[in-house]
What we know:
By secondary structure, this protein is mainly beta. 13% of the residues lie in helices and 43% in strands.
Amino acid sequence: xxxxxxxxxxxxxxxxxxxxxxxxxxxxxxxxxxxxxxxxxxxxxxxxxxxxxxxxxxxxxxxxxxxxxxxxxxxxxxxxxxxxxxxxxxxxxxxxxxxxxxxxxxxxxxxxxxxxxxxxxxxxxxx
Length: 127
């Protein structure tokens, strides 16, 4: 069994999960589903918008192993991306708060790279 430290982005409770599989995907304190991805984050699609002046926006859609939807929005200028939006289970999370406590999964970085958007300024995590 492994122990994983988690944080709820709704009530800011930190807690541990002990187990072999993914965590349940909700905060034991407040019940919010606004917690880190449970298990692997599976990319389900993306949308992009590009302007001739080098501005672009990309949205990456994914689900974790509990079936919670995640949405990452990146804005880019000359293909250098900045995280500008995050939704966990439909709940908007300020990007600065997300990046302070969590890491953008590698699967999201790979998807952004395939879209021609460098996400080098974002903290990475393995998914």
